[in-house]
Amino acid sequence: MQLTERQTRLLRNTFIDYQQTEEFLKNPLIVKSAKGLYYWDVDGKEYFDAIGGIFVASLGHGHPRLLDAMRVQMEVMSFAPPLHGISEVTLEFGERLAEVTPGNLNFIKPFSGGSESVEAALKFTRQYFKQTGHPGKYKFVSRYFGYHGGTLGAMSASGTGPRKTPFEPQMAGFLKVFPPTWYRDRFASWEECNRFAARMFEDVIRNEDPETVAGMIVEPIGNTGGIITPTAEYFQILREIADRYNVILIFDEIITGFARTGRMFAAQTFGVTPDIICGGKGLSSGMIPLGALMAKEEMGDAFRGPAEANVNFAHGHTFAGNPLACAVGIAVLDEIAEKKLDEKAQQMGDYLAGRLEELRKYGVIREVRGKGMLRGVELVRDTTTLEPFPALGTALKKTALSNGLIMRIDPNWFAVAPALIAEKSDIDELFNRIDRSLAEALEMVG
Which architecture characterizes domain 64-339 according to CATH? Predict the structure, then answer.
């Protein structure tokens, strides 16, 4: 893409997320429109959106049902007074969301996105313990390589060092353990590795003093670590630890929620119900900012009391529960349910995984992992030494864009999460673009 002088000047007066401006200017992308599974840039070039923008456009871009829902709500009301009341459509959204959450996670509070939802969950958990006789519980245990958002609390819970160091010192009370992939070469089986990694949470809680630990927060499938996919037993162990030490188990399902893994939530995919789920991204299919905190009903009870006690959740956001966003959220949930897109995600996800396995012919694939329509591929120099191959990932970033392909690429892995509307023919096209891009990247690195 050739930039005009004006475009270059404007790009230098803003920033692209997690990218150095001068490097971005060497291989820029300015998108102009989107529809279904595709973007088009300002030059008219087509790109297959293999990642839903950023795990967001779960129903594709410009879905007519969502556009209609937004238009109808616009004519009724676009904003409600959050300090004085709540909109009817916001209540309806909460009711609809509670119908699909696992267990009794029926206490719902909408927000404007994933970071807000995580931030709220952290504050909700701390206040919950202050109001239930455990005021010393304030610490959270999470994982290295986890990512929970860009706000200060969510970032403190995250385990992505380079993203945090510019803003340190971080908030106190956030502790980390390593994900199972960190230990995988030290155990005879993946299952035993996961047992060890899960029990690390208990080691930390016991040594910190359980009466100081409020929660554990994990992504069921870890994105920034390379689509880390633990065993179901891993989460069962976390559930047992949470119950044993009176610790709140929080699932960050901002990426994995809303049919992405083959069930409405990854909690159902792995068969373990947490105390809180944080949602975002695909909940509105990228149409408008929307997230949600979903907690067990009995946790909500701790925020009620007599008027003189003035007990309430001391937290709020101007656009939390926005009527337009909630109308879109209802439409997304209804579309998933009516079209059984969770079941489709399982079927198409298996097909996608099978196609990605074909990339092993290049001798640089260590593993294809993930669930449903969320899959990751780990790159290595060769499958004998399993040495990382960051140069390949760096080259793949360039060849993918050249071939009209947008996907999440780390130097040592890449991830794809096409919209749930994708059919086999779409997955075949996606694979062909990945195949071509990887072959060209291998040529670049020699």
Answer: 3-Layer(aba) Sandwich (3.40)
3-state secondary structure (DSSP) of residue 177: strand
* Region for residue 321 given its phi and psi (left: phi exceeds 0; alpha: psi -120 to 50; beta: otherwise): left
Cα–chain center distance at 43: 31
pLDDT number for residue 399: 97
DSSP letter (8 states) at residue 228: B
Q: How many angstroms separate the most distant Cα atoms in the chain?
A: 73
Tell me how far apart the alpha carbons of residues 227 and 154 are, in angstroms, rounded to a whole number: 19
pLDDT of residue 94: 98
DSSP 8-class letter at 192: H
Give me the helix-helix angle, 190-208 and 232-245, nearest 10°.
20
Token pair 């997304």 is found at: 332
pLDDT of residue 309: 81
Those residues with Cβ within 8 angstroms of residue 418's Cβ, 6 or more apart along the chain or in another chain: 37, 49, 50, 51, 52, 352, 373, 426, 427, 430
Q: In angstroms, rounded to a whole number, what is the distance separating the alpha carbons of residues 422 and 122? A: 35
Place of tokens 């669930």: 371
Residues of the chain short of pLDDT 50, as ranges, are none
Return d(Cα 8, Cα 10) in angstroms, integer.
5
Structure tokens at 235: 């989460």
Q: For residue 96, what pLDDT is reported? A: 98
Question: Could you give the residue range(s) of every CATH 3.40.640.10 domain in the chain?
Answer: 64-339
Residue 340 to residue 330: CA distance in whole angstroms: 15
Helices (H), 19-160: 21-26, 52-55, 64-76, 88-100, 114-130, 152-157
pLDDT digits (tens, 9 = 90+) for 64-99: 999 999 999 999 999 999 999 999 999 999 999 999
What single letter denotes the amino acid at residue 170? Q
* Whole-angstrom distance, CA of residue 411 vs CA of residue 378: 9
| Average pLDDT in the chain | 96
At 249, list the tokens. 């188990």
Asked if residue 249 lies in contact with residue 238, where contact means CB atoms within 8 angstroms, the answer is yes
* Residue keyed to tokens 């120099």: 381
432 CB-near residues (< 8 Å, 6+ apart): none
Report the half-sphere exposure of 294 (CA within 13 A, side-chain side): 32
Q: How far apart are CA 400 and CA 433, in angstroms?
A: 7
User: Residue 423: helix, strand or coil by DSSP?
Assistant: coil
Residue 30 CA to residue 15 CA, distance in Å, equals: 13
